[in-house]
């Protein structure tokens, strides 16, 4: 009887177990597996992060994309297509031109490919790129959008290398270091450098020392193209010869360029970039009005001033000054006045107003005041010679008192007794001022 009871008990338990939900062996009890749903479609996902940018050469395009990180069937390759007709879609994919097919590679996550003229791309054209993945069943990935790019164009820069006398400087190397481009000026000073991309900012420079002489190097301001302009011309270099300064001038570095910047007030100041800009007269020779006056010592002041004009012209070998009787139109107006604190002074008459000062604006009219107390013709002429040096752009006084400079603080006294009233360094500096471009940034010249 006990056996019969146990038999019935275990049979009941087994029946209950069979009737419990999920108790059969045909369905998993794993909660994760219970939530899994197979994909509705077998088409690969859209290729992610498709980008199109400019290649390193004009007219080149760099296309990049990332792999499809999940697909029902293994991805075999990626296809890159291009169209010049408009955006590429699934509907017009067959009309687009395939640029390349790139097989899937183990471990490769990012693809980058560069296309150019060899693939039939035209400079300046606007084109669309698209990338699709193909699996081993021949399915192509979805395609929601394509990327657009306007290709760069070839840009050449032409110009000429001059020195301050207006003569061409041959065999000067023009460099664009960032683009690893170089060019050598020909016998007439002409150069052509490139090609660059017309989307680039280009900085050109010279290396300073060349055959046949030596010049201070120059670094141009960054150059850019303008819309619709594929060839930029007229970017000339005007070089300053690497003159030897008077050996007696050791302050601060016996460099002509340092001396020139000091005398013209075109020193480099980080907090005031405008301080390095050279302002000079727009036209030469300058017209000078000299009134007639004899001082109490019997000195004909006008004759002394005229001697100063002629001395400058003689020293420079060409006309820098011409006398005029028209006071209103004159560039420079002499004034003979009784002064207490100085023997000579130059002031800016035009332009006038706030911010207008010598060396900071393009001059239009100046006044040269000479004290009538000066006792001799030679003294008046020497002081006038000194003040006319200021009008020519030598705005400061020289720091070098050892050299026999006219533009020392007392350089006008005894100037006519010297074999050369105007020092060679001063003549060279005045010539540089006259023949350098208006508004030249003097900080762009390099001594190294």
Describe the structure.
The protein is of the alpha+beta class. It folds into three domains: 51-150, Immunoglobulin-like, CATH 2.60.40.10; 154-239, Immunoglobulin-like (Sandwich); 256-446, Collagenase (Catalytic Domain) (3-Layer(aba) Sandwich), CATH 3.40.390.10. Helix content is 17%, strand content 26%. The chain is built from six helices and 23 strands. It has helices spanning 2-19, 31-35, 256-264, 301-316, 377-391, 424-435, and strands at 51-54, 61-66, 75-83, 97-103, 110-115, 126-135, 147-150, 154-163, 173-176, 181-184, 190-197, 205-206, 209-210, 213-214, 217-218, 231-232, 237-239, 286-289, 321-324, 332-337, 344-350, 365-371, 445-446. It has a five-stranded mixed beta sheet with strand order 19-18-20-22-21, covered by helices on one side. Helix 4 (301-316) crosses helix 5. The longest helix has 18 residues, at 2-19. The chain is rod-shaped. Residues 1-28 have low confidence and may be disordered.
Q: What is the global morphology?
A: rod-shaped
- Unreliable stretches (pLDDT < 50, length at least 5) are 1-28
Fraction of residues in H or I helices: 10-25%
What is the residue-mean pLDDT, rounded to a whole number? 89
Q: Cα distance, first to last residue? A: 118 Å
Helix segment tally: 6
How many beta strands in the DSSP annotation?
23
CATH class of the largest domain: Alpha Beta
Write out the strand line-up for the largest beta sheet, numbering strands in chain order: 19-18-20-22-21
Number of domains: 3
Largest sheet: 5 strands, mixed
Q: What are the secondary-structure elements, in order, as H or E?
A: HHEEEEEEEEEEEEEEEEEHEHEEEEHHE
Structural class: alpha+beta
State Rg. Answer: 41 Å
Tell me which CATH architecture of the largest domain applies here.
3-Layer(aba) Sandwich
**Portion in beta strands:** 25-35%
